[in-house]
Design a protein that fits this description.
Largest sheet: 4 strands, mixed
Order of helices and strands: EEEEEEHEEHHHHHHHHEEHE
CATH class of the largest domain: Mainly Alpha
Number of strands: 11
Strand order of the largest sheet: 1-5-7-8
Oligomer: single chain
Length: 291
């Protein structure tokens, strides 16, 4: 089972030899590729051989590329995630609108409920109660935008009334970085299941290649929020990024068992896709934090 997150920070050449990823920089190191779940390449001064790209794709390793500012900019997405991807795509295209709207209602209730729990944990009782009210009001497809109302209350409570998500700040940089990593992990599982990341349940932006990923990552956002609140970053450097990456190895409860977030995302995505294929918009999976 793959479990490691490997971060490449400086100039080097990555190659594939006899089951290992060879990292050729000032020193030569080897990493057993079967153990790698995520490969994060922070520097644009890194070259990859075609044989390594083939191996990474076949072993379903999520590869994330960063720009010169070391911010995620792109990722490696395979054309074919599984042997019957054509059938999976036909099923996905056939998902009924009513079923998708019910599924989105469940996803939003799950997300807002986790936000409410976190606010209560932080001592914001009044705001937590407000979010529980919003959660109860979520309609199929979230027609009344309870998510947006909840988000305003939630972020203002955590980061202050002057906080806005679009502002340039260490907090927003940390949130964006964490959300980008989560999105990449969710996209990996969607592709591995043979589905198209472009065709979402709720998100349908024609310019977004990852509409479905944006849908299914929503309940996991609170894990990033918790890490950022605890860090309270006054700057956003490599140290803060590594704290964010540790989220992937945090343990949560899913399907009555303890799993890392990496495994929980895999289980969650497969459960959602299976429910949609069964035309069951009521079967919304969930996870909870380890006690």
């Amino acid at each position: 089972m793959s479990w490691r997150t490997v971060v490449i920070t400086g100039r080097c050449k990555l190659d594939y030899r006899l089951g290992y990823m060879s990292v050729r920089g000032r020193e030569i190191r080897r990493v057993f590729l079967d153990e790698v779940a995520v490969l994060l390449i922070e520097s644009p001064a890194v070259s990859l051989t075609g044989s390594l790209i083939e191996a990474l794709t076949n072993k379903k390793v999520k590869v994330i590329f960063c720009d010169a500012r070391r911010e995620p900019i792109s990722e490696l997405v395979p054309h074919h995630g599984c042997h019957d991807s054509a059938e999976r795509m036909r099923q996905q295209i056939a998902w009924r609108e009513e079923t998708k709207q019910k599924m989105w209602q469940g996803i939003m209730r799950d997300k807002i409920g986790k936000q409410a729990d976190f606010l209560a944990e932080c001592g914001y009782r009044a705001e937590s109660e407000m979010l529980w009210q919003y959660q109860a009001q979520v309609e199929p497809g979230d027609a009344t935008n309870r998510e947006g109302h909840a988000a305003k209350v939630y972020f203002n409570a955590l980061f202050g009334m002057k906080f806005t998500r679009g502002a340039a700040s260490p907090i927003n940089a940390a949130l964006n970085y964490g959300y980008s990593i989560l999105l990449s992990i969710v996209n990996r599982e969607i592709s591995a299941c043979g589905c198209l990341t472009q065709l979402g349940v709720f998100h349908n932006n024609q310019f977004n290649h990852f509409n479905l990923g944006c849908d299914l990552m929503e309940p996991f956002r609170v894990l990033v929020d918790r890490a950022v609140v605890r860090m309270a970053p006054e700057q956003f450097t490599s140290a803060e990024k590594h704290v964010i990456l540790e989220i992937l190895h945090q343990e949560v409860i899913v399907d009555k068992s303890r799993q890392t977030v990496l495994n929980a995302v895999k289980i969650y995505v497969r459960n959602v896709l299976n429910a949609l294929n069964r035309d069951d918009g009521e079967a919304v999976p969930s996870y909870r934090l380890k006690p």
